[in-house]
Amino acid sequence: KERTPINFLGKRNICFAISLAVIVAGFVGMGINKANTGDMFNYSLDFKGGTSTNVTFNEDMTLDQISAEVVPVVESVTGDADVQTQKVAGTNEVIIKTRTLSADEREALDQALIDTFGVEQEQITAESISGAVSVEMKRDAVVATVIATVFMLLYIWFRFKNIRFAASAVLALAHDVLVVTACYALLRWSVGSTYIACILTIVGYSINATIVIFDRVRENLKTRGSQSLEDVVNNSITQTFTRSINTSLTTFIMVFVLYVMGVSSIREFAMPLMVGIECSAYSSVCLAGSMWYLMETQMKKKGQYQTAGKQGRSASKSKKKELS
Predict the structure, then answer these.
(1) Each residue of 138-155: pLDDT tens digit?
(2) CA–CA separation, 121 vs 117, rounded Å?
């Protein structure tokens, strides 16, 4: 169905300003967090270590029972929602991981478990979890993101035979990563192993929507006729707009159901993923095409200036010859 092209490029400055404001707010939030807590993010146990408490219950508890009955007791003592539980297969033992607890907090947790579930003191043991893994995980997260981005840059460059398509797509990806990271900083979401999975998922999802739009731009450039470059880009984004919205909306609904129905560990992954899905749709529609257009027009202007300069130098040389 033919639709009247929407002037996306005409609103590019507004979109750029909104994105820049969110990203800057994220960096400001990181600075505030660093000043107040010593860390830019709310790092989870995977990144900063903590206390591991092993409890052997009198009955074999299911994962649902652990989440519904045990976790609230632990949270009431620690005052922190960052609680990880793991069931040891074939036994009644449950491993409870929390932030680093003081001696008094360990005693309070032991007593709460004894009073609530009737376990014996001998059935409870605790040990500290090293945070040394944090450095390696942070490095791996950065390396994984950089490797994925570089390979996508090379593929798009090879596939579209135009480095500006690749550069604008990667900039859109960087925008999505920075916006989601800003949400982690501002909303104090827990940053752990799920953060790495979430960012890589968003990167893969975002590039897919961007490539669809760029592919339509490339097709329309071949049959542009008298159309201006701006009209080609606006028309291409409009033609793929319904597809972009439908894909993002259906994926968002699926992840939203995961968030509503899932346990805390699933919600920790689903919430930032929902933000990333909507952000990737926004960047693909409102930013990627605009950035490619700016790069393309700037390149043409540079080429015109170089051509004009060569012509000017040639004319100057010809005039000198005539005078001589």
Answers:
(1) 787 788 878 888 888 888
(2) 11
